[in-house]
Amino acid sequence: MVAWACADKLQREMEDFGYPPKFPVEEETKVEVAVKESEIGKDKSKSKKSKVAAKTGGLKYQWQIMSAMGLTDEEIKHFSVPMYWLKYFPPHWITDLKRMGVKVDWRRSFITTDANPYFDSFVRWNFLRLRDRNKVKFGKRYTIFSPKDNQPCMDHDRSSGEGVGPQEYTLIKMKLKEPYPPKLSGLKGKPVFLVAATLRPETMFGQTNCWVRPDMKYIALLTKSGEVFITTRRAARNMSYQEMTAQNGKTEVLLELIGQDILGCPLEAPLTSYKVIYSLPMLTIKEDKGTGVVTSVPSDAPDDYAALRDLKNKPQLREKYGIKDEMVLPFDPIPIIDVPGYGNLCAVTACDVYKVNSQNDRDKLTEAKEDTYKKGFYEGIMLVEEYKGQKVQDVKKIIQARLIQENAALLYKEPEKLVMSRSGDECVVALCDQWFLDYGEPSWRAQAEEALSKMNTFSEDVRNNFMSTLDWLHEHACSRTYGLGTKMPWDPQYLIESLSDSTIYMSYYTINHLLQGGVWDGSKPGPANIRPEQLTSEVWDYIYFKTAPYPKSCGIPQSTLNKLKREFEYWYPVDCRMSGKDLVPNHLTYFIYCHCAMWPDDNTKWPKAVRANGHLLINSEKMSKSTGNFCTLEEAINKFSSDGMRLSLADAGDQVEDANFVEKMADAGLLRLYALVEWVKEIVEEKVTLRTGPESSYTFNDKVFISEINKSILETKSNYENYLFKAALRTGFFEFQAKRDKYREMETLGMHRDLVIKFIETQALLMAPICPHIAEHIWILLGKKESIMTALWPQAGSVDELLIQSSQYLADCAHEFRLRKKTLSAGKGKKAVAPPTHAVIWIAKTYPPWQNSVLTTLQELYQANKGFPDNKVISQALLAKPELKKYMKKLMPFVQVAKENVEKNGLKALALTSEIDEANILTINSAYLINTLEIEGLDVKPSDGADDKVKEECCPGKPFITFLTEPSVKLCFINPQPFSSLFEFNLDIFEGDTLAKVVNRIARTDRSKFKDPAALKLYRYLDAETGWRKIPDMTRMLEGKVNVDQSSVFHIDSKSNTVTVSDNGSKIPLGPKLVYLINL
Fold first, then answer.
1. What are the residue boundaries of the Aminoacyl-tRNA synthetase class Ia domain, all occurrences included (predicted)?
2. 751 in helix, strand or coil?
């Protein structure tokens, strides 16, 4: 249908505007301010967003749209032939998808419609079996219909209004009393009715008047019964397709008039207690819904009450439109429904509650209407004598049927909102003969609900959307007369529409590589050597139904059909169907229904899962050619590379929310991929310099890194299995990289070679589904002989959660310690503060008594209430404890911190002791803490020996640090190596420094120059007083110098500002300078 409609458009455009077309210059359209739309009657299970509207970007002509895609006029001309569409695009799609790195078995490619005889035969068999099972029926039904195409307009046939269905109204007939107004005098003797479309026939007992818009255009429509209806031309067009006029689709207009012509007319309205009511002016009636005539029930409709009140209170308004007092003032709201919370005059109360002052308070009226309509329908109780005490929702249909039976009303339908066909036609609702699938039939629906209950929808929103669709969906039209497609096997004047011929085509994928062998149009047989005409219904039965007998007369070897049968049995059922969220209310629900219908006794063939995704935004806005916010697959690959684009797409969003492709993020992703590749190259080149050793030599951080890698493997696998690609990218790339960075930072001995190589291998495998080309490149850099595409998913070893928790504890502590140091170093006022050189970390094994009491109380309250009660309850429980009275100001802040910790870490956050060995963790990682805090020494001590302030601040899992500034003496370090970038510098020496401490301190001054502290050697002058004064001999750099021994200990005298070194029991003065060399 899409191709055919677009081809027709191109043909018409060439006929109307020549070749190449010269289109008229369009005036710039004004943008109207959007008015808040009422949610009443809106089916939230349906997606209302038009993909076509987003793609065309407001371009009016099909030729312009295709020109914007980069096609020349000569190329576009060929597209006026529908079949050309089927031949042109597939090669381009395949080229782009291959460049993108999509893995596809191209042997299974095929096109649909009767252009492919193999698929055409499959669809005909599918519909024959659906008819055999009484799922396909024929008859008159209401459907969205395109008058221009003269056929039903299904979702995929629409350029706007996807998911929109017929909205049912009750067409209330209000008889005009004679004498008629002058404009209608020519209709004398004819029964004339103002007809109003209402959603609430049960409220007709409360009519006080009807509304028309003074400036709106109306017509007098002659119906097939001889009655004359006053309505809008748009509504009359709908009526003409619903058997209300003499000829289907034809309207006989007797008069054209405006609302002013029929104001103040006396009317007889059904069910109301007023014998005569009048037509009055309302200025807010819309032309795009209903008939332009509105019944007025001011007791239950806030809009009606506000407008009637305005007319009563404003004589000038009545005078303006020629309305007499007797037409308005005697009419008061009639109590007809009792609504809990609003009483028996619901609208009157609602206008008071929402402070509605006039009919111009649109937003307030919308809110009032939302609330009262829902409450009135679901909770309202009828007060009218015949239905007194009954619920509104129970009597609505009964009253509607009564009105229709008494010829006081008709059933009328129109589209819920504007629907435009791909032919550019505004659609109507038509009552027409057609073939339809009997969706909603109770036993069939029960099967569909059973199938859905066992399916994984990956989201409760999607499941609820399916359930809502099953509630309203019934009798879907499956035939049309226009476009491309398979002909209905038993009624070839009809084509099977595109949403109905593709409900089980996944089963065709399982065997079509043998039938067609990759020839899209099926123009020649595939490996199975089966001709299309051999594929009878009995052959298809044998392939797809386990118990079907072999058709001996088919001329196909049984062994060949058995092979096809095995292929189907191997691949089916559908493990997961991936599709857009806008297809849940149609195609995906049909998909469930038809699988149940085709395999009613074999639920192992029913779908196992559906994964629905949102639409794609670019830079937080919908794609639009007119604004330039548009990007084709080819353009994205050219701009960001295949993997850069794939990375950004994966990061764009998960679940059913619209994904957001952000170009800045794509650029940043490219840089991250580049940085990763460069780092891998560096590691491969320098891996011989990395630390080695058996597993027994693994450090604390080595073991943590192993557990972190294993955990990432498990988390990323779970995310991929649930099609959460954004989450998989997070756990398998961004967070995985962060774990490497953390390991590199915390492991002061340097990274272990085996673990780094394992990390790189794992990283390549984790990112391969998203960035296959980069992963393959990294795989090759590691020296792998076979492609990463043949590699297995990495095996995850054990995950030591306590070890990971301990590492996180260390990272949190380091962060808190750095913040405390920064605060202390800032000082108070302008007074300079000496930077700290040493620190003591205080560890508490238990909480202070008052905090113990609070935590115990919180545990009890949590268990008793299955969660934390309100803070008021917690506060009362704590205040009841005498031992906590002097800590009143500290109680609730501590409670809040405890609750946040529970939210983050679970109930273990309320434990009175820490499950990790804090002292051991901090001690074995003291070198890291010294480095990150940029201090010279660190002690870890129990808080028992600390002062009261430290004890108050310290608790399990939250150590406290105090910083100290120790005296030091500066020495000058000289490098005599020629042609080097190493210079002399001054360095603090502290009492008790070892050679290792001094060397590490030097290395910390400039990591880029001192990458390997082990390569740095220190030398002292034999003559500490004069040796450093001599002019150095570059050929004999070590003359007059001696190596500082590894066992040496430095001592300082801050008073004399001198340094000595202990060597073999004696203290040797060092003088003011030392010599350092690297890799000598």
1. 85-661
2. coil
Please give the Cα distance from 184 to 674 (Å, whole number). 79
Is 968-1078 assigned to CATH 3.40.630.30?
no
Written as six digits, the tokens of 662 are 């952000």
The angle formed by the CA atoms of residues 350, 351 and 355, to the nearest 5 degrees, is 115
Phi-psi region of 210 (alpha: psi -120 to 50; beta: other; left: phi over 0): beta
Q: Which of 343, 345, 325 has the alpha carbon at shortest distance from 335?
A: 345
Contact present, 144 and 170 (Cβ < 8 Å):
no
- Give the contacts of 377 (CB within 8 A, at least 6 positions apart): 200, 392, 393, 396
Question: Three-class SS of residue 385?
Answer: helix
This prediction has a pTM of 0.75
Q: What angle do CA 944, 945, 950 make, to 5 degrees?
A: 80
| 174 in Cβ contact with 267 (< 8 Å) | yes
Helix (H/G/I), strand (E/B), else coil: 581: helix
The identity of residue 460, as a single letter, is E
Provide CB contacts within 8 A for 767, sequence distance 6+.
732, 733, 774, 775
Q: Where are the domains of the chain?
A: 1-25+57-104, 106-133+459-472+503-613, 136-163+420-436, 166-415, 621-799, 818-958, 968-1078
How much of the chain is helix, strand and coil, in % rounded to 5?
A: 45, 15, 40
945-955 pLDDT tens trace: 888 888 888 88
Q: What is the mean pLDDT of residues 671-676?
A: 95
With both helix axes pointing from N to C terminus, report the angle between 753-767 and 663-686 in degrees, rounded to the nearest 10: 150
What secondary structure, in 3-state letters, does 858-903 show?
A: HHHHHHHHCCCCCHHHHHHHHHCCHHHHHHHHHHHHHHHHHHHHHH
Q: How far apart are CA 1000 and CA 926, in angstroms?
A: 13
DSSP 8-state assignment for residue 693: -
Burial 819-841 (b: 16+ CB within 10 A, else e): ebbeeeeeeeeeeeeeebbbbbb
pLDDT band at 37 (very low <50, low <70, confident <90, very high): very low
Q: Matching CATH topology for 166-415 and 621-799?
A: no
Q: How many CB atoms lie within 10 A of CB 946?
A: 19
Confidence of residue 870 (pLDDT cuts 50, 70, 90): confident
Q: How far apart are the first and last CA of the chain?
A: 81
- What's the pLDDT tens digit per position in 987-1005? 999 999 999 889 888 888 8
The CATH superfamily assigned to 621-799 is: Isoleucyl-tRNA Synthetase; Domain 1 (1.10.730.10)
Distance between CA atoms of 650 and 769, rounded to whole angstroms?
Answer: 10
- Say which DSSP state 252 is in: E
What tens digit of pLDDT does each residue of 503-553 get? 999 999 999 999 999 898 899 999 999 999 999 999 999 999 999 999 999
Query: How far, in Å, are 503, 541, 544, 1044 from residue 538 at the CA level?
Result: 20, 5, 10, 95
Contact assessment for residue 611 and residue 721, using Cβ atoms and an 8 Å cutoff: no
Superfamily of domain 166-415: Valyl/Leucyl/Isoleucyl-tRNA synthetase, editing domain (3.90.740.10)
pLDDT of residue 578: 92
Q: Are 371 and 350 in contact (CB under 8 A)?
A: yes
pLDDT digits (tens, 9 = 90+) for 609-630: 999 998 888 988 887 765 677 8
Task: List Cβ neighbours of 722 (8 Å cut-off, separation of 6 or more).
Answer: 458
3-state secondary structure of 788: helix
The band of 39, judged by pLDDT with boundaries at 50, 70 and 90, is: very low
Beta strand pairing call for 968-974 and 985-990: antiparallel
Q: What span, in angstroms and rounded, lies between the C-alpha atoms of 559 and 569?
A: 15
Residues 6+ apart with CB under 8 A from 376: 300, 337, 339, 342, 346, 392
